[in-house]
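Protein modeling request. Please complete all fields; requests missing the sequence field cannot be processed.
Requester role: graduate student
Desired output: 3D structure, token encoding
Chains: 1
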Amino acid sequence: MRIENWNSKEIFGAYLEKAENGANNVIDEVIGKAKQICRGSFQHDPPIFREGKFSKAHVSFTPKTGKNKGQLVQFDTEKRWTGRFPGQLQNTIRRVNKPGSSSVRAYAGNFKVYYALMVEKTGYTDKNGKLHRPIHFLQAPFHAIKRSIVSKVAKG
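Delivered output (156 residues):
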């Protein structure tokens, strides 16, 4: 048996487009919930506003253990943006489609909001020195819908 004159690229392209739309919808759902978690988790009274500027630090210490034990170690850190305003982290949560790779990703943070990974994975210390537990704003919504992702991507 033989099938002739059929265009496989059009047929499979339609299925691929439907799957990509489903993946985009799943990631958009994760991002929406992540923004809600950020909005509810970072409530400061009064809100934190800090003037934006680049700053770097000079670090100097003498280690008590390790390769440089007893020797003075000095270095300058990279420049970091110090500005903060309410909703800054929430505004950087976004979906990124990698063209040609069929990959859909969710990112948080950018050059000026470099602390997104620290808030998500390790926790953070506020200006008063109080340690705050990690806030899994991207991980938690993803794990909540993880079991239904395949069916949502298949439905488009």
